[in-house]
Amino acid sequence: MNESRESKNAEQLEELLLLTEEIQEELEQKDQLIEELKTQLSESLTLNEKLNKENKAGNIQALKNDLKLADRALQIEKEKLRSANVMIGECQDKIRCLTQQRDYARTHQKIVEIPVEKPVLYEKCEACDRTDYQNAKAKYETQKERLAGQYKAKTVMFQTTLFLLAWYSLTTTLFQAVQSDVLLSDCKSFFHDAASFIQTFIGWTIDAGQSVAQISTKIPNAFIAGIIYWLLLILVVGIYVAGTGILAILIEIKIIELYKKNCWDVITLLMILTSAVVIIYFGESIKKVMPINLLFLLLFIQGIYLGIRCYLNTLYWTNR
After folding, report:
1. How many CB atoms lie within 10 A of CB 229?
2. 66 lies in some domain
3. What pLDDT is stored for residue 250 in this prediction?
């Protein structure tokens, strides 16, 4: 209440100050006009004296008329100036009163405490037996445990149903895959190509080790040269094999981390089963359209799916 009254007084004070400034500007303009009239009057008096000396009656009469008009205008301006001074005095009195009221409101403020209602848990006094409260609390706990048990039972039932459905889909798909000659042939070809690649890589590694081990031929002692040859060969082959194995393990760990982070849900399971079912049941038709290994196609589809899920997950967190 005091703050609203103080703000209202401050607005009135600002309006009075603006009005006072406007009145002062008007007074300055009127003072300037009075000075100009005084200058004209003095010039007229000078001219009157000059005309009196020259005894020109007509000019003297005209000059007297001008002097009367100037004197009348000067009186009017003086009256306006007097009225403006009275108005300024009244405004200053109002400003002084408003300033005193504002200072009084600032120096005579008081703090008023307002009661606030706050809901608290209902409990009886210590003299009562608190029977209603204990009964209500026991009923709440019983209902809470019953609902928790129902939720847990439904969760177990849902997980069991989902597991059985996944197991049925997986076994049916595997049995159909075993009966598919095209898929079995492509699986054998895939693993045969993988074994051939590993064998070729080992051959390259051994050739590289033998090339490095040829340095030992420059040693004159045949026994020492043989030892150095086998040491260099084992070292080079071990480095290549260990490096390739570590790289494969790191790639596998990275793929598993990406699956757990972006694709560890029911959608991925449905995607794997659906793509496997499509490749198993329509393998012959796919082979007629494009001559590609079906197992490699399945892995390729999973790689594309993993990339899409990672991109969508990154886009989601970026926009969020």
Report:
1. 19
2. yes
3. 92
Q: Which of 182, 160, 169, 161 is nearest to 279 (CA)?
A: 182
Residue that wins the pLDDT comparison between 125 and 91: 91
- Establish how many alpha carbons lie within 13 A of residue 41's alpha carbon, considering only the half-sphere containing its beta carbon: 15
Strands (E) located in the chain: none
In the block, tokens 């420059």 appear at 218
Same domain, 253 and 279: yes
119 domain-assigned: no
pLDDT in tens, 108-130: 666 666 666 666 555 555 555 56
pTM as predicted: 0.44
If asked whether residues 175 and 191 sit together in one domain, one would say no
List pLDDT tens digits, range 243-294: 888 998 998 898 888 878 887 777 887 888 788 888 887 888 888 888 888 8
Range of the domain at 288: 183-319
Please check whether residue 3 lies inside any domain of the structure: no
pLDDT score at 3: 55
Same domain, yes or no, for 145 and 262? no
Asked if 311 and 239 sit in the same domain, the reply is yes
SS3 content of the chain, % helix, strand, coil (to 5): 90, 0, 10
Q: Where does residue 101 rank: exposed (0-12), middle (13-18), buried (19+ CB within 10 A)?
A: middle
Q: Quick one: angle between helices 181-213 and 222-262, nearest 10?
A: 140
